[in-house]
Amino acid sequence: MSPRWTPNPDVRTGRHVVHHLHVHLVFVTKYRRGVLTNDLLARCEEIMREVCTDFEAELSEFNGEDDHVHLLVHYPPKVQLSKLVNSLKGVSARLLRKEFDAHVRRYLWGGHFWSGSYYAGSVGGAPLTVVRQYIEQQKQPA
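That's the IS200/IS605 family transposase sequence above. Prediction below.
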């Protein structure tokens, strides 16, 4: 006999919450300099996975080019997104500069690695129009 309902592995539960939060993040190198080699990208992914783990989040996807990276992060609602971003950027910048110092200094100066800004977009679930329609239909007149 098969179960009638199979739980979605992406839906997580906490003590008082059920959540399914994903964010697409994009970080750009300072001055859009093409500093990120394949080795730097691989190490950057390792660092960012560790930071996410510290926040009880999961780095679901990671990729990038020479001047930017894309992250898909599954995170719990107790995580303040701006703090996660600051930690991801700060820890990765510090360690990448330390570990790839000679290479990084050819492209970047002044102690910077990432641009001060970033992109964050909510991801997953139904399209906004479907959610809006669902909410509107919750209390229909009898």
